[in-house]
Amino acid sequence: MKVHSNFTGPKSKKRLIAFSCATALASFAFIAKPAFAEEAKADNASNLDTTAATTANVETTADLVETKVVEAPVTTENVASTENTTNVSEQASTSTASSETASETASTTTSESQAPAESVSGQTREAVTTDRAASEAASATADTNSETNVTGGQYYSDSLGNWYYKDASGKNLTGAQKIDGINVYFDENGIQVKGNFSKNKQYYDADSGALVTDCYINHLGGVYYVDKNGEPLKGAQTIQGKQVYFNDYNGLQVRDGFASNEHFYDKDGNLVTDSYVFSTKYNYNNTIYPFYVDKNGDKLKGEQIINGKSVYFDKYDGAQVRNSVADNGRFYDQDGNLVDLGKKHYVFIDNHWFYVDEDGKILKGEQVIDGVKVYFTPYYGYQIKGDFNSDGQFYDKDTGELVTNRYIQLTRYESNGSMAPTLETHWYYLGADGKVVTGPQVIDGVRVYFNYRGHQAKGDFGYDGYYYDKDTGALVKNSFVSLEQPSGTLIYYLDNEGNTIKGEQIINGKHLNFGKYGIQVKGNFAPNGLFYDAITGEPVTNRYVQINDLSNSYNTHENKDKWFYIGSDSKALKGEQVINGVTVFFDKDGVQAKGIFADDGFYYDKDSGARVNLGNNQFVQVNGNWYYLNNEGKIVKGEQVIDGNNFYFDKDGKQVKGNFAENGAYYDENSGVQVTNRYVNFNNNWYRIGAKGTPLKGAQVVDGHNVSFDQDGKQIKGDFASDGYYYSKNSGDRVDLGQNHYQNINNNWYYIGNDGKRLTGEQVIDGVEVYFDSTGKQVKGNFAENDSFYDKDSGARLKEQFVDLNGKTYYVDAKGKRLREGGVRTINGKEYTFTGGADPHLAREEFLYPYGYSSFYDLNNKEVKGPQFVKAKNGNRYYITASGHVPLGLHIINGELYMFDAPTNKYADGRVSANGLTKDYFPSLIPNGSHIYYFDKETATAIKNQYKEVNGNWYYFGPNWYALTGEQTIDGAHVYFHRDGKQAKGELVTVNDKLHYYDPNSGARTENTTLTIEGKTYHFDAEGNGKLLN
């Protein structure tokens, strides 16, 4: 690095505006172009005294070094206070950068003074001061910064772009400093704070590093206001006549939401009064509800009259009640207006029944109306029909009456531990309390069973181990029963207690077997070794059989379709047998030998299984393989000498040809004779067979040639052998590569040592630390086995720097070793965050730990603060909330509904899900406890207020994004959607006990029409109600 001090070169005529925040904001409008003093026109209200700065660029012989000469910066003092809020004077900024343009918060970029250019050797910036700089450097923060004005030192930067200041004695400054009249700050490592708050909680400009005062700033996506001392304001404030609020914790301005004082501030941060307020940050059940703030900005709660209309706001959080029942028992419509529902009668609203009492209020909870026990939900007040209440009591689908002591059949979604519940139909029995009964029960004198969910066992075994009839559900005794399974039909026999019997049994005079598990053995062997007929189930004697057990409960598949012979004891014969005058053979498992040489050495016919005489003392070919028959006509195995030649036959008697045998010797591919003293090619590899018939290994001299073979006997060609020498890829001869030089072979670099062998491991060559792997290849652009990284070009070991590999960035220390610990690490005075686990690397476009439960870091290793979407390097999108969490399930963001990994997914990591038609399930036994949505695969947002065709079915997604169900009026047409959201088209549907028909094309309800449907004629009146005419 070259440092130039005492620079006195020519000064530019273009003067840079000084660094105080007020001045910077005054010239905010000029940031898009060079802001020169001659061009800046201060507003009359601020009358700023600006003094120039001068820049110059110096090109050296080795580096391009940027040098800045700074003269006399200026700041203004303009903060005053009021009673309970701080009123920041409008003198803080000019009309070109007022707080009314809060979105244009100050970057305080007023000069190009510390914009580091990329240079391997870094940059140096020299500061030269004048008497005027010392006397006119006005600072409202003199009490928090050094009173001593430092001059005569120099700024310089490192290769990472960090700036430092070295004073005249050569010492790096730290902490708050005034340099050349400008208040700046350096951390404990001497790095200048820029575009951030320092430890003294003051903010410093991102470009100049100067202390920022009396203005709005935009930092990490949030807005702050720093006072005359450069510290962020907190709490309620009045700035330029506008009431605003800053977070009590860190001074972040509250925008588009309620502050901790319960006042609402709009998207520009201004206090809202006497108005309804809406914010996407406040939603319930995927619906955005408004609030109303009074003239003081306080939320209204309870009953209110607004614009002459009776409305209601939740007594706890102040959200307006809409299309629902309020705490006071009154119903408010979708616009929030009170609805007079009359008294002492049922009313039907939004597909639900309610009951209005004598005071005109909606009833809730358990009630007895006209002597009937009914139930209304405790929060919304709608009647439960055909469903369970929160206490598990069931109410009739038509009357709404509590159902007791009665069977019911329900079709509903059931979750079986998987992510996607299935639609199932089950019988239940409701006890005297209206709740489902479980376990064994006696109902009307009949023993029945219900599982833990209340499902009645029918045509199956209950969890108690007993079988229950498929029609009546009654306990079955003294009877055969069967269960259909994918593998086949399973048959059981139940005794007079209903227990399954096992093992050998006599039933109705027949000898049967039910094995170890109570499943009847048919067409198979039982554990007792007897074979039972596939039809009668009785033991078989004196006949050939094949396994015909479709359930495969008592034998393995490999014996299926094989032949056995069952003897007089009902067991399989084994070994040599004569059956019906024919010599046959069965192996140790009783399987008949067919088309093979059996264990006795003889061949048996592939069709009849009879023994075949193939002769003796000769070679025979069977099924493409060669065998040798001895003088008994049996096949030989292992090493054999035939006619003076060495041969080998494997364990099945097949002759080994063109291959290595189990004894390690190689046998000729044509004659099968053992090979000696010659090269052979096997599987495209060369071997040298020695005098003993086995392959040579290691370094050898063959016919005067130095050659080498690996541990399997394969000849080394075109590579280095384990002895360190290189062998020709053509001849296989050892090649003299010389000594002490690099050698490139097949695009890999090697180093040949002074003994002519390739080097391995860590080496120092020509003063450079390099590494060669176990095969001698030089490691380049990768980590070696010693955990050091070597340069991709030179191969030199890298130290104290970041390295990139396979899309990840690592750090190697002063010894060249990879950083092996995650977390925050300080490197060259700057903090970096590394991932944990077995592969610690710089956290970039990823979560610090798996599954999105921790901080997300961007491409620059900066922690991402929410709320915002992020995209990880794996391509998945996530959303970071303001509190730093990654949401799961459904969430409304900026007015749009998104689905993030379902919470029921064991491996959910919060990624955005855009899978088209999606069901959002809730862990509840209550039917209809779920909604159907459609998430656009491009935008990932849920559609609403529109039709959508999916897989040939039409759906309508309503204002709350989910698919509508039941009868609806859409665009003036009466239409109907089933419980699964599919539109009824060309169907007869019963709606509230009335028969309706929906057009097969438009789906509209048919009215004032007579139609013949499937041979029956109906008339539909003006309300669409149908009547069968014939």
From TrEMBL:
Cell wall-binding repeats lie at residues 616-635, 739-758. Residues 89-119, 130-149 have a biased composition (Low complexity). Residues 1-37 form the signal peptide. It comes from the Bacteria. Keywords: Repeat, Signal. Residues 75-88 have a biased composition (Polar residues). Residues 74-152 are annotated as: Disordered. The keyword Repeat applies. This is Glucosyl transferase.
